[in-house]
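Appendix B, Record 12. Input sequence as logged:
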Amino acid sequence: MNQAIILAGGHGKRMKADIPKPMLQILDIPMLGWVIRACKEAGTEKICVVTGYKAEYIEHYLNGKYDTALQSERLGTGHAVMQAEKFLSENKDGNTLVLCGDAPFMDAETISSALELHTAQNNAVTVITAELEKPYGYGRIVRSETDGIAAIVEEKDASSAQKKIKEVNSGAYWFRTADLIELLSKLTPQNAQGEYYLTDTIKLAIESGRRAGVYLTENTDVILGANTRKDLLMLREKARKNILEKHMENGVDFICTEGVVIGTDVEIEAGTVIQPNTILKGRTKIAGGCNIGPNCVIENTVIGERCMLNAVQAYDSVIENNVKIGPFVHIRPNSHIKSGVKIGDFVEVKNSVIGEQTSVAHLTYVGDSDVGKKVNFGCGTVTVNYDGVSKQRCEIGDNCFIGCNTNLIAPVKLGTGVYTAAGSTITKDVPDYALAVERGQLKVREGYSLRKLKDRLFSGDKEKK
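Logged structural output:
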């Protein structure tokens, strides 16, 4: 069996973060999540994550799905892998991939192709490398005469000739598991830092007569990591642009890309237009022919064909075909907006079904309600769904006309074709095709304001005199 160890114990002090560095997000998932995803896509499902600084954050994120090992002291990369000894010993016959949890752009193709070469050449270890035009700061790969690897030379130790080498170490390796266990046992902290370096296993493998190989990936981004907030921003921007380019190749149109952020799991069909300042997150799916934005935030929401959303925030909901929403609309979780609905400015919908061709024009709250088709909501309508203790639902039948400033006090049911008079507070069920009028009695006190505001109303006349 092939398996992976992901090193995720780093603090990242220069980040000035109070969580482990691999938990910092690139777009909508942590860097660690990107690395785990690459492993899974490559078919490497058995994973051990080595934790360290504030390990509880990573444990919570993993939620028991993968093994973990704690590196309580930061004594180098070799020491980190040593902490996964139990994980390694459970499957000595296969191969083990070692990755950095803060290098989010490792990809499944690189992992799979490196493993194929690793097994074909019968290597004890295969180093994944990349060629950079500007390799400063990275460990250089010194090739052997047999096109394997002779050594990895760090920048500070490299000669003038070695510094000209463009092939660098990515920090990712395939090991034959049994060999890795043996090589780790021979590591020593004989260096200025007093740490156990995983790169020393290359030298030990060669000295013991084992073959150390090299897989040169075409994806130079696999080496990219983040040590500072500036680095993190660079990674985010690169990820953002890569995702936008993927959607453009699939036929999605962007008026411009300013402020547009699209998550890794978002699906958009060809022919949809994305306007500026639009953020699409989670497992959002958008069908073709839509116009989304500007100024939208859509998360975990399914949107049908030919919809228009302008300045809308929508979460965990379903929006069917030919729906027009916005501006300044909030669609809260568990809402279902059916085909042909129109929702105008300053409307909030929460945990409700809005039937086909219903119109909610403006200044309305619809919460915990089941609304039929072809209903018209007047301005200022509120479904009063909370009594201070529990939530109750309203039911509104097809073809109802809700007058302006109507309050529907849940639980209440309006039958088919019901009209409510403007300003009514409906507290009882209304039968089909009825007019509901529920207002307080009007009381008029003549001359009230003359008495109350006498000094204010006539102060100008006194000043003239």
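The mean pLDDT is 94.
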